[in-house]
């Protein structure tokens, strides 16, 4: 039988036979197999892994994967009103230009010297977010808002020494599931109701459940249902009275126009940075932030990396490094605070680019833009027969509920019909928030044009008309 | 080019732009990007939008973000990027345990297509069949690679996967009514710190085993630690030392006999692909870091995925959703009766999943095996060369080979010259190299950890080793030069003292300004 030529993959340089032989000689063994002696026979996998035949050329691989991806419909070619914590805001070209740079994309855990740029970029991320949030400490990003919410609750537990936490019922179902798992079995998570007419928090429910054994209260503003909570000072008073902490989740892109939570009594603030210059990536664009005041009792409870600024041995030169590294699980394993590791740093750098480009004017204009689009869309939709938009009386930011119950149609049916016209309708709330009836959560951003909104209104009017005729 | 010339440490100087912190680039009135204007009809219909927001909820003064023109923002971050040394530029073998392998550029082109980037995670299933097909295919690949039965891609990193495994421990024992009694998790000191830390978040008491005198995980210590309070085992193998635990099947047997579950930390499985699997060692759960073994770039620390696999009996405990195929279409299964819920939002970090899929498909079974074998070859080659450096050693398992990495020690060098591992690290930066110490605590004195992976050529490995040799030579001839390093990196030695002092630490620019004024 003819001996097959050695296959050398472009990603594996030392597959080259004569190099391999040279290295084996240097080690003093005959075959690579000799290097695996520590792995006992009975643990060896004797077969070949049943994987598809490889597509070894880049040319064919690209074609193969593009063909599969071609089965997706995306939010660029279609008109999407999906939000709920992941939103299609505009991504400035420079955000992608920076986060695709080899230096940032393929760096990891370098020292403050050869990776000075990574430290500075993330320090700047922390600093820019701090201005937006009006707080003095922000962490290197966590995985996402789910993780940040879980962590701020556990921080509150450690700071207060209390194991009960109150959580608003109007947080996203994703977050609720993650928070519950993150707290179980150490903490009791108690849900606080919202008024079914206004959408605002039920202060009586909050008051009756808050006590001196409770670490605090976690709520989001705007809430998952888009509502701006206005009773913020009352909430802070109820929680602070018995010594609890106010934990607030926020969409940072709202903060050009909406007051940052610290200004109405929040002690720890968290949220997601996906809206700040990061593509949705089918959920891969999320990154969580946490912010506090610059007090030791807060700082020492962060599990995350915190990059700080310092001097070097050269006069006038600035350097960076880890603040209070010993508090982390890298420093002290299980005695550190929760855990740290690889989370979403590249998105932090991207958000820094975004905020640097937007500046104060950009953030204010964008906030107004979104408010106007959302309010206009709600107004137009509520003019349709049987449609209530918003379903709740409270003011809202970029998302709002649309109640279709009066049309006799389910959200599912409406969204199916919209999809046929290239429109992704809002998130169907009917399963998760049954009190909302057949409601959808619609999200508007600066991407949407008047034409887009009119297209949605026309499509819905057409659906209702068609249904009317069929009856 | 002569061989000698190719492999000497180079005359290097990293970019040093002295780029100010971005706030110092502020010029009032400059703009970086414009927001689209709102159509007149909209304004006419609802006004400025702001009036609908109650006064006390409106922001009273704009955020004090800097105002900078577009090209200057670009230049700033490009300069910062040049002051950062990614694997694409570095011979990045000095970050042991992290598998700094090549991340193919074709993947970057693919993940930036709108069919990936512009997908919303809550789109209707029928509109994301391509994405679901890729996720499910990767699940099938990893089943084969691990021998386990179902995978979740929800954990956003290795530590999150460990949290998910510990959460499954809890849910599993709760179902059996044993969750209160089973409150201990066992790990080893050379397992990743997250194995201990993430399990502690679930309220577990952590028992940490130390190795026997030869550096192997101690099976006698395990026997003593295990009891009816054992919830499970979370263990890295090969450990941070690069030593494969030959008695790993005994470990899992002992835990199983005590009624516990076994979770395999295979964050880094780069040396054992196709060689040995979680199934053969009888683990119930395992996870792979797709940003390590499976080529997704590290991104300065994420986004990432810790792909967690389980055996059939634990499928119902997985976080939801998982992606399945009904013979006709792919769908998100949200309905697992004992699910722990979620450890992250949505299904997965899809671009990372896509890159891992592409990498495995490109290499195939034989290619994966070759990657592992060459990673091990490279590691043992570097081990052999470093052992010959006067001052370096590779504690434990003497006369044995290692799998994909080695934790070395400069103990002898420090004793003889006063040069510490931190000093060596700083000096290596002058040659364009990164070197890392070890996880804490430093069990190995003056540690450094090297993992060559399969990606670097012999010449590159030689260049790196010659860099180490040069620093050691300097340690003996010109120790001050090493002590004062780095000289040719971006900045000089930092003063770490403010970083641990609450009065002086500054985690943001505004805090820095306040504290500098005070």
What is the fold's blueprint, element by element?
The complex is a heterodimer of chains A (471) and B (518).
Chain A: H1 17-27, H2 58-69, E1 79-80, H3 93-99, H4 102-105, H5 116-133, E2 137-138, H6 145-160, E3 164-168, H7 173-183, E4 188-192, H8 203-209, E5 214-220, H9 232-240, E6 245-250, E7 268-272, E8 288-292, H10 296-299, E9 307-311, E10 318-322, H11 329-332, H12 345-382, E11 399-403, H13 411-420, E12 423-424, E13 427-428, E14 439-443, H14 450-470
Parallel strand pairs in A: 1-12, 3-4, 3-5, 5-6, 6-7
Antiparallel strand pairs in A: 2-8, 7-8, 9-10, 11-14, 13-14
Helix pairs in contact in A: 3-12, 5-12, 6-7, 12-14
Chain B: H1 3-7, H2 40-46, H3 70-82, H4 105-111, H5 114-117, H6 129-146, E1 150-152, H7 158-175, E2 184-188, H8 193-201, E3 205-209, H9 219-225, E4 230-236, H10 248-257, E5 261-265, E6 285-289, E7 306-310, E8 322-325, E9 330-333, H11 350-387, E10 406-409, H12 411-417, H13 421-429, E11 447-450, H14 458-477, H15 479-483, H16 509-517
Parallel strand pairs in B: 2-3, 2-4, 4-5, 5-6
Antiparallel strand pairs in B: 1-7, 6-7, 8-9, 10-11
Helix pairs in contact in B: 4-11, 6-11, 7-8, 11-14
């Amino acid at each position: 039988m003819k001996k097959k030529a050695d296959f050398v993959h472009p990603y594996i340089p030392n597959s080259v036979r004569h190099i391999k032989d040279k290295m084996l000689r240097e080690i003093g063994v005959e075959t690579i197999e000799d290097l695996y002696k520590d792995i006992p026979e009975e643990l060896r996998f004797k077969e070949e892994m049943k994987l598809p035949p490889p597509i070894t050329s880049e040319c064919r691989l690209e074609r193969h994967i593009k063909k599969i991806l071609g089965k997706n419909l995306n939010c660029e070619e279609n008109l999407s009103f999906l939000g709920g914590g992941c939103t299609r805001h505009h991504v400035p070209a420079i955000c992608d230009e920076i986060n695709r740079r080899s230096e940032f994309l393929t760096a990891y855990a370098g020292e403050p010297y050869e990776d000075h740029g990574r430290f500075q970029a993330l320090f700047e991320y922390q600093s820019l977010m701090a201005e937006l949030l009006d707080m003095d400490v922000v962490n290197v990003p966590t995985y996402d808002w789910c993780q940040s919410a879980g962590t701020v609750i556990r921080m509150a537990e450690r700071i207060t020494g209390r194991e009960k936490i109150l959580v608003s019922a109007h947080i996203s179902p994703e977050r609720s599931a993650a928070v519950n798992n993150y707290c179980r079995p150490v903490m009791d998570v108690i849900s606080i109701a919202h008024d079914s007419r206004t959408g605002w928090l039920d202060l009586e429910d909050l008051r009756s459940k808050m006590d001196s054994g409770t670490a605090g209260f976690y709520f989001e503003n705007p809430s998952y249902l888009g509502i701006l909570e206005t009773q913020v000072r009352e909430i802070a008073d109820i929680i602070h009275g018995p010594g609890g902490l106010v934990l607030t989740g926020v969409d940072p892109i709202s903060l050009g126009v909406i007051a940052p939570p610290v200004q109405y009594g929040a002690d720890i603030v968290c949220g997601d940075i996906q809206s700040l210059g990061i593509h949705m990536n089918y959920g891969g664009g999320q990154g969580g932030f946490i912010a506090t005041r610059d007090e030791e009792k807060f700082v020492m409870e962060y599990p995350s990396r915190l990059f700080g600024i310092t001097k070097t041995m050269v006069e006038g030169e600035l350097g960076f490094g880890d603040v209070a590294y010993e508090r982390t699980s890298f420093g002290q394993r299980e005695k550190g605070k929760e855990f740290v590791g690889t989370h979403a740093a590249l998105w932090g750098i991207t958000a820094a680019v975004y905020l640097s480009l937007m500046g104060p004017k950009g953030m204010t204009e964008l906030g107004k833009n979104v408010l106007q689009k959302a309010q206009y869309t709600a107004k137009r939709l509520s003019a349709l027969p049987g449609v209530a938009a918003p379903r709740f009386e409270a003011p809202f930011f970029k998302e709002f509920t649309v109640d279709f119950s009066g049309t006799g149609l389910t959200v599912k049916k409406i969204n199916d019909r919209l999809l046929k016209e290239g429109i992704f309708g809002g998130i169907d709330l009917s399963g998760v928030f049954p009190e909302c009836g057949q409601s959808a959560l619609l999200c508007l951003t600066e991407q949407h044009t008047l034409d887009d909104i009119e297209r949605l209104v026309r499509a819905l009017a057409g659906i209702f008309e068609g249904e009317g005729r069929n009856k | 080019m002569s061989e000698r010339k190719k492999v000497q440490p180079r005359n290097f100087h990293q970019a040093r732009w002295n780029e100010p912190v971005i706030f110092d680039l502020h010029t009032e009135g400059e703009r970086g990007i414009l927001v689209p204007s709102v159509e007149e009809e909209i304004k006419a219909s609802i006004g400025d939008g702001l009036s609908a927001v109650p006064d006390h909820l409106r922001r009273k003064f704009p955020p004090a973000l800097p105002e900078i023109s577009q090209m200057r923002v670009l230049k700033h971050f490009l300069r910062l990027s040049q002051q950062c040394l990614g694997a694409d530029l570095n011979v990045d073998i000095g970050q042991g345990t992290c598998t700094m392998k090549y991340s193919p550029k074709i993947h970057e082109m693919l993940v930036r297509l709108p069919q990936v980037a512009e997908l919303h995670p809550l789109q209707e299933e029928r509109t994301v069949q391509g994405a679901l097909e890729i996720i499910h295919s990767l699940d099938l690949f990893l089943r084969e690679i691990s021998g386990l039965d179902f995978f979740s891609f929800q954990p956003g990193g290795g530590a999150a996967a460990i949290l998910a495994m510990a959460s499954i421990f809890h849910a599993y024992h709760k179902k059996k009514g044993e969750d209160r009694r089973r409150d201990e998790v066992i790990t080893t000191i050379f397992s990743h710190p997250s194995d201990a830390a993430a399990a502690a978040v679930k309220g577990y008491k952590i028992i940490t085993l130390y190795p026997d005198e030869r550096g192997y995980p101690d099976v006698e210590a395990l026997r003593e630690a295990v009891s009816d309070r054992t919830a499970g085992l979370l263990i890295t193998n090969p450990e941070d030392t690069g030593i494969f635990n030959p008695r790993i099947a005994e470990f899992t047997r002992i835990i199983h006999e005590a009624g516990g579950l076994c979770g395999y930390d295979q964050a880094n499985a780069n040396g054992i692909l196709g060689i040995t699997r979680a199934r053969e060692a009888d683990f119930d759960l395992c996870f792979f870091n797709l940003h390590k073994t499976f080529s997704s770039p590290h991104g300065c620390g994420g986004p990432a995925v810790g792909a967690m696999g389980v055996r059939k009996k634990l499928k119902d405990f997985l976080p939801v959703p998982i992606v399945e195929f009904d013979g006709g279409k792919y769908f998100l299964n949200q309905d697992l009766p004992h699910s722990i819920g979620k450890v992250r939002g949505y299904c997965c970090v899809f671009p990372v999943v896509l890159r891992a899929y592409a990498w495995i498909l490109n290499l195939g079974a034989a290619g994966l095996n070759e990657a592992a074998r060459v990673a091990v070859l490279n590691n043992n080659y570097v081990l052999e060369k470093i052992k010959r450096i006067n001052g370096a050693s590779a504690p434990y398992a003497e006369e044995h080979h290692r799998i994909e990495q080695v934790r070395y020690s400069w103990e002898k060098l420090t004793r003889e010259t006063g040069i510490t591992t931190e000093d060596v690290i700083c000096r290596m930066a002058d040659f364009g190299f990164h070197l890392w110490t070890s996880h804490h605590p430093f069990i190995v004195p003056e540690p450094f950890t090297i993992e060559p992976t399969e990606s670097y050529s012999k010449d590159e490995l030689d260049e790196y080793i010659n860099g180490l040799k040069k620093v050691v030579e300097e340690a003996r001839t010109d120790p001050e030069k090493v002590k004062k390093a780095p000289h040719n990196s971006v900045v000089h030695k930092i003063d770490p003292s403010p970083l641990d002092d609450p009065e002086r630490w500054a985690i943001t620019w505004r805090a820095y300004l306040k504290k500098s004024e005070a």
